[in-house]
Amino acid sequence: xxxxxxxxxxxxxxxxxxxxxxxxxxxxxxxxxxxxxxxxxxxxxxxxxxxxxxxxxxxxxxxxxxxxxxxxxxxxxxxxxxxxxxxxxxxxxxxxxxxxxxxxxxxxxxxxxxxxxxxxxxxxxxxxxxxxxxxxxxxxxxxxxxxxxxxx
Length: 152
Known about the structure:
- By secondary structure, the chain is mostly helical.
- The protein folds into two domains: 1-50, no CATH class; 65-130, ROS/MUCR transcriptional regulator protein (Arc Repressor Mutant, subunit A), CATH 1.10.10.
- Helices cover 57% and strands 3% of the residues.
- It contains seven helices and two strands.
- The chain has helices at residues 3-22, 30-53, 65-71, 90-95, 100-106, 118-131, 136-144; strands at 77-78, 85-86.
- The protein has a two-stranded antiparallel sheet with strand order 1-2.
- Strand 1 (77-78) and strand 2 form a beta hairpin.
- It is elongated and about 65 Å long.
């Protein structure tokens, strides 16, 4: 561990221990406070070590055109991560720590690979049109235009 990282860990340890001691009603003996500092430092240094030891993101072989075609059904998209169907992949990917671009790159998918099932997208579009979403400019111009009559 570099000296800068070690100093940063020490600073965080002191801040955490001081915050705990000042915000708790329990009186700590000097030995207990030292143990708290040692345990906090060990935990923080273990966290940074675990982050450094994480393996780089694994890449898989690019998917064939047939596999890509089969993964897109009218009602769902089949995830290449777990093989389960989803109406939208974005939340599923976020939970797994992937962005849509990373997912496409990881599995060798084209840039235009959809993240939302076609039927779900169409249903959302129809609902938005029924509600008049996206019509603000057109509607406000119609309302603001004078009716041609004179104001009294």
